[in-house]
Design brief:
Layout: H1 7-18, E1 27-29, H2 30-33, E2 34-36, E3 42-51, H3 64-76, E4 94-103, E5 112-119, E6 130-137, E7 143-150, E8 156-160, E9 163-167, E10 172-181, E11 194-199, H4 204-218, E12 223-225, E13 230-234, H5 239-250, E14 253-255, E15 262-265, E16 272-274, E17 279-280, E18 283-286, E19 290-301, E20 312-323, E21 328-331, H6 337-347, H7 351-364, E22 367-368, E23 370-373
Helix pairs in contact: 1-6
């Protein structure tokens, strides 16, 4: 059963952490709302094998690719296996995994990055295992890093006689500094006479304020807003001067705009988050609870004396429908976040009910915010 959501706590924590009161201007830096276009990380992935597991690896009879992988690896090491009718090696201390990592911007050969190791077979746990050398490839199919090392798993568990206890996930682990970069990726930072700032969200007012702040700091005509999400800035051609220019640029402060009013709903977990711009219009709400209970009672029918019948077990179903009272409640206009929280808490609705109420308020035009359902 879903528990009631403490909307007041979520909203007030968000308001205190993300923004001050609406009546005050908030100063923010350019580096917090924009990034330099072309300066980004790249995703790497590869197929690998984890060895040294304590009997918790793949069942190789059900996962033939695990046996094939270890056989190919042993052949590369000069160890021949029986061919023809020979059976494949059956081992419980190995597991097939997918290894993923992020190649940071400006990373150079020899630097180390963390990797995530995820089981793709039926291994029970990767705890205590060692990832053998695994090439990590980019989207272009080229190898950019080699991963190897001891797998660290944050979970724990035990099983005996059909019973099992588990804390957190055992089939996913991490290798700290487990991948060594073998190739760097060129960026467009030093190409062309200008750089381009990409705003985190599309907002024409923010683009204008960023442009004005840059021109005020470096001089008129230095920056131009191309769209609500892109600002073009003239930059020095020399690499050292361009880096220094970007360091100063990212520290420029300006008065941030209020974000677009938004309510984010996670339908899977029941989490609901409001930002500081959400307001409510006056409305009336009636919401009743409908409870359906279905129960089944076994009924045993015995045959008569001296008859050739047999005992029959049947089930008797009992269905009850109970509908709660729907009280019409008036919600006044709420121009501030604390007023919105107070008005919503008056309804005393459960999380699931609140999801439907917010959707209905949005459809009626009483919720003055964008509703995002994840």
């Amino acid at each position: 059963m879903l528990k009631k959501l403490n909307v007041s706590l979520i909203c007030l924590l968000l308001a205190s952490a993300v923004a001050p009161l609406l009546g005050h201007a908030q100063q923010t830096r350019i580096k917090e709302i924009a990034s330099v276009q072309g300066v980004r990380s790249n995703h790497l992935t590869g197929y690998g094998i984890v060895i040294g597991l304590d009997g918790t690896g793949d069942q190789t009879t059900q996962m033939p690719y695990t046996s094939q992988s270890i056989s190919n690896y042993l052949k590369q090491q000069g160890i021949g296996l029986p061919s023809g009718g020979g059976t494949a090696p059956q081992m419980r201390n190995i597991a097939s995994v997918i290894v993923t990592a992020k190649l940071p911007a400006f990373a150079e050969p020899g630097q180390l990055v963390d990797v995530v190791v995820s089981s793709i077979g039926n291994a029970k746990s990767l705890k205590g295992g060692t990832l053998i050398s695994t090439p990590l490839k980019g989207a272009d199919g080229e190898i950019y890093a080699l991963a190897q090392g001891n797998v660290i798993v944050g979970g724990s568990g035990a099983s005996q006689a059909g019973s099992r206890v588990q804390i957190n996930q055992l089939s996913v682990g991490r290798v700290v500094d487990g991948a060594q970069i073998e190739r760097s990726v060129t960026t467009s930072l030093l190409q062309g006479p200008f750089i381009q700032l990409a705003l985190n969200s599309s907002d024409f007012q923010t683009a204008r304020k960023v442009t004005d702040a840059i021109n005020t700091h470096f001089g008129t005509g230095k920056a131009r807003a191309l769209s609500g999400r892109s600002v073009q800035v003239d930059a020095p051609a020399d690499a050292n001067e361009r880096v220094s220019f970007l360091a100063d640029l990212e520290e420029i402060k300006f008065e941030a705009s209020l974000p677009t009013a938004m309510v984010v709903i996670n339908a899977r977990t029941g989490a609901i988050v409001f930002n500081q711009s959400v307001t409510l219009g006056p409305c009336a709400i009636a919401h009743g609870n409908l409870t359906i209970t279905v129960s089944s009672t076994p009924v045993i029918s015995q045959p008569g004396a001296l008859s050739s019948g047999s005992t029959v077990i049947k089930e008797k179903a009992n269905i009850q429908v109970r509908e709660g009272e729907g009280i019409l409640m008036y919600i006044g206009a709420a121009p501030k976040l604390e007023d919105v929280v107070r008005a919503i808490n008056l309804m005393g609705a459960t999380t699931q009910d609140l999801l439907h109420i917010l959707e209905a308020m949005k459809a009626a035009g009483a919720l003055l915010a964008e509703l995002v359902v994840q």
